[in-house]
Amino acid sequence: MANLTSMNGFLLMGFSDERKLQILHALLFLATYLLALTGNLLIITITTLDHRLHSPMYYFLKHLSLLDLCFISVTVPQSIVNSLVGNGYISLVQCILQVFFFIALASSEVAILTVMSYDRYAAICQPLQYDSIMDPGACRRAVIAVWIAGGLSGLMHTAVNFSIPLCGERVIHQFFCDVPQMLKLVCSYEFINEIAVAAFTTSTAFICLISIILSYIHIFSTVLRIPSSEGRTKVFSTCLPHLFVVTFFLSAAGFEFLRPPSDSPSAVDFMFSIFYTVTPPTINPVIYSLRNDAMKAALRKMLSKKGFVQRKMYLKSMFKH
């Protein structure tokens, strides 16, 4: 450990020092990563190729899947490699990139979930104005704003976090470069700038949370006035998956970032970090697919022989243009 910590990089202390458990961790993470990869790629493919899903709701869902795909790819592959080789070392450049993309994608995910809640609000509470509110231009601008906001957040955190002098051994008790754990390595009170950036990010996330809550208050008050039970069921089938994803992601993220980092992380600490980093990108495709009849129908069509022929013709027409 002394040789590693004397270098510019960091030593990631994963789940266990025992070799068998390291291999088990690598295999479990690999299976989870492949599941997340498959599920999110399926949603991206379905929402791109199926013309019936060319609407704002599925446009935002496609970008959520793209964010999930990138988000899980930031931490899990590196952790798998470290476990397989039995070496938790990560270089300074790798750690910088990991922190930047992790914060940027997490911030973008909060932003896209906020945009998706507003889309559902506009569709259910203002149906007559929906086409003008969520026109293609507005959807593109919203997605661009989501990616830019995430990039700026990641840039601020990375610039401040890696400009602070560190003291002691560069050991991070996590399977990735976790900002709260890295702050434990900071000398004395030099982390005041990082606290300011974290406070700004937390305030922004809180504003997004309030916006989502207000959107769903209006949505549910409108839904309860729908006389048809079939109409209420249809609305709930599109809103409940999104509400579950929002609740799970923000509660896990809030617990991870607002609690004080422990000097000796327990299994519970590692489990909550998995809930925040690994679980949402893995379960989001399952939740949206199982609760959405249009997604299930599009998936069956894509997997059928007729759907394969139609996709082939669609791709040929794209290349001709």
TrEMBL record:
This is Olfactory receptor. The lineage of its organism: Eukaryota, Metazoa, Chordata, Craniata, Vertebrata. Residues 39-288 form the G-protein coupled receptors family 1 profile domain. The keyword Transmembrane helix applies. Gene3D superfamilies: Rhodopsin 7-helix transmembrane proteins. Odorant receptor. It comes from Carlito syrichta (Philippine tarsier). Its main location: membrane. It is a multi-pass membrane protein. GO terms for cellular component: plasma membrane.
